[in-house]
Design a protein that fits this description.
By secondary structure, the protein is an alpha+beta fold. About 30% of the residues lie in helices and about 10% in strands. It has 16 helices and 15 strands. The strands form six sheets. Strands 1-8-10 form a three-stranded antiparallel β-sheet. It has a three-stranded antiparallel β-sheet with strand order 2-4-3. The protein has a three-stranded antiparallel β-sheet with strand order 14-11-15, with no helix packed on it. α1 packs across α4, α2 packs across α8 and α4 runs antiparallel to α5. The chain is globular. The two termini are about 40 Å apart.
Length: about 475
Amino acid sequence: MLLPLKKAALAGFALIVASACSEAPVPDRFAIADPGSIPQTEQRPGDPESGYRTVVNRGYVTCGIPYSAFVASDAFGEPRHRLPGREGRNADLPYMFNSTVNADGVELVVNNCLTCHASEFNGELVVGLGNPFLDFTGDPAVTAEMLGTFVEDGPAAAAWVKWADRIGAIAPYMVTGTVGPNPAPNLTMALMAHRDPRTLAWHDEPLLEPPPRDPLPTKVPPWWRMQHKAAMFHHGGGRGDHVRFMMMKSLVCTDDLPEAREIDAWFTDVRAYIASLEPPEYPYPLDRELAEEGERVFERACSACHGTYGEDRHYPNLVIDLETIGTDAAYAQQAVAAERFVRWFNRSFYGDGAEAKPALGYMAPPLDGVWATAPYLHNGSVPTIAALLDSSQRPTYWRLRQEPREYDQHALGWRFDPLEHGKDGAPDAEEAKWIYDTTLEGYGNGGHTFGDDLSDQERRAVLEYLKRL
């Protein structure tokens, strides 16, 4: 069942940007990375201010909804938040949309990165914070077809057909069963399946076997971590030039190498902007004495994987093997098993200076601003940090409270309701989609039980310390 149109349209249209050929041949190889420390790679310098302007103004996704149809449909509502630096038409669009003009002179409305990489906290929009409340359970092809009824003949119709055909081809691979999880990795693989890696030409029939139709759940990590990380993605598979991974948001529409090179130049600045971001400060009261106690516990029990903070901070960039971490293995296993897509990337334009090299494990992330990034683990299966540090508190079935959203200052996470049943016990599909069911494949909440060894007092102290990061 779809959301009411305005919410469904936002979520269904959202992942046209959420997917994250070299002219010289690259060895046809496939390497699985060993867990362990990932070496840093020098990144291309860029201008953060220019990068921000690109994010909020430019059409780096080059196909989309004709502006006339966007307005006539009234499907997307009025802007709830207005960001500084929005220029021209963008100033009047919802923050997750940008205006652009295609080669035929048709004005289009296209998604930008902030669809998934911005979220509300205490009524304010935090740029760079992943949005755990997005609903990708509806079919975006339905929204695309609905918008087509508002399109005029001529160049606007041709622009809509290109976008709608792309959405129709990839829609089956981007529909989740639960509100909150993000299907961007699956969408990216679906896009690769339709493109020639050397020319980026689109083919209506896939050239590779597409990914599974049921996306494994992943959560969107905060942007401000990227200034510390040597590799992208939960499995650490995004090695080398981070720009080449970040710019794949445009892959749904980028059909040739000249366009890819132009977007690459823009995204050198976007990467610099992302790397310049700092986490928000904890907005509630803080027990500083207890936090100091927690720092000592953290440095003893947690810093070997997650690093140290302050003036002499150190982040080890460790991928922890599946046996040690014990968390749901499905996502890492799928990334390693998807050899055809790893090969596609490494042989393509995007692999020039970058390398897809996933590991059978998960990166222990830096924890700057971690208190704001609920739910936890790579699949968002644990609703609070308190439950992350005490596995006995983790609910098997639960749902986030949507309206109003309430932040739990003690457990550090959005308030949620534990349930007695999973999706099978819901009265209908509309209710079922809100239930996070940890018994489903990829949704498990086990592992990362290191906090179980702490006393109750030590856990309280660590929770207080994490508010300072």
